[in-house]
Amino acid sequence: MNRWSVLVDNLRSQLWPLPALALLLALLLGVGLPRFDAAMNDSMPPGLTAWLFSGGPEAARTVLSAVASSLITVTSLTFSLTVVTLQLASSQYSPRVLRTFAADPFVHVTLSLLLGTFVYSLTVLRTVRASLDDQDAFVPQVSVTVGFVLGVASVGMLVGFLAHLARQIRVESILRQVHADTEATMRHVYGDERDNDGIPQVPPTPGGRTVSLCAGSSGFLTAVEGQPLLGAALETGAVVVLADHPGDFLIAGTPVAVAWAAEGGELDESAVTRLVDALNGALRTDSERTAAQDPEFGLRQIIDIAVRALSPGVNDPTTAVHALSHAAALLCEAAHYRLGSRLLHDDAGRVRVVLPRPDFAAMLDLVLTQPRRYGSDDPYVLARMFTLLREVAWTTRSPEHHRAVSGQLARLTDAMHRHSFDERERARLQELEQSVRQALAGHWPVTSA
């Protein structure tokens, strides 16, 4: 993903770009259409004139004034509802889902239409003239008609916005949107790197004295451009291994990568300087995590919702179960990709740059660690975590993935034994535990309801 893709991803989560563009277009339209009206004057086709505004200057001013004054009030209401929604999402679900709400295109289009119609109506209003001694009356019929149509469309958009907001604030809608965004990120980051492509991913080992390369700025690592690093590594005859992946927080002045001479020996000072410059140019940091190159961010959002639902103040295990279901689907999708570090090679096939990425074990640990800690005393939440392991175990045949599932199964079983359940609940949980082992052996078990 290049820097322009990262920029587009950042702009998507901002509320101002599309409304600002709409204001500019509305201003241009408000200046251009009255000139078109003046040029056409009385040469409008009769069939078209019948559909246009037919009132005088005072009526035109009344219509445009009513549209402008009402829409600025409606726009204020829309902004207020948006802010309240963001506050509710932050407190009820997770602060990290605010980016999902802010990137909602329906909100952007609504604000753009309302603000654009307001600016357009004011701009056209200045061109309406009454008949005086030194000037003729002028009513831009097309312009006023367009203002009327935009006003009606704005009312319809407001009704649609309210319905959309009521739907989007539901936790199921939030989970579905985060799920879709995370799937898109996986497809973009991993592309055609399927786990069964047969390409070995063996990172290199240092062949000489290593040099630490430090970060130039602090913040969340949002994107890494591999090609500039590869070019610098080839130019200096070095091997570069990054220590952090998108989603990690970097501290300026601390090592973020190591490098060594590909042919042995040591890297000279000029080579190290070149590598540091290339590294700082290849790393993108921001004050918040983004999904641009960070598939774990979507899983983090989903698990945050699950953990918040399990808190004593909320006490909503059903939402936690639903969140774990979405996490299970994403893990099953991730299992089909070749996870782990991305290796960049030179023309001779030697590894020159290693870009770390989370492996399957890390993703599975992210999904289960906190729900296991905070929800293992609830039999339904615990049952869903066992079921998640069974689904993942069935989906993948990778020995590495199965080892990760087995490790999580042992930890989940231990958590089950630390809590008190009645006889029926414990029997159900033990049945699910055995079903995971059967799925690891390649058999889909039939469990009781």
TrEMBL record:
Q: Pfam families of this UniProt entry?
A: DUF2254 (PF10011)
Instruction: State the superkingdom.
Output: Bacteria
Spans through the membrane: 62-89, 101-122, 142-166
Q: Which UniProt keywords apply?
A: Membrane, Transmembrane, Transmembrane helix
InterPro entries for this protein: DUF2254_membrane
The name under which this protein is listed is Uncharacterized membrane protein
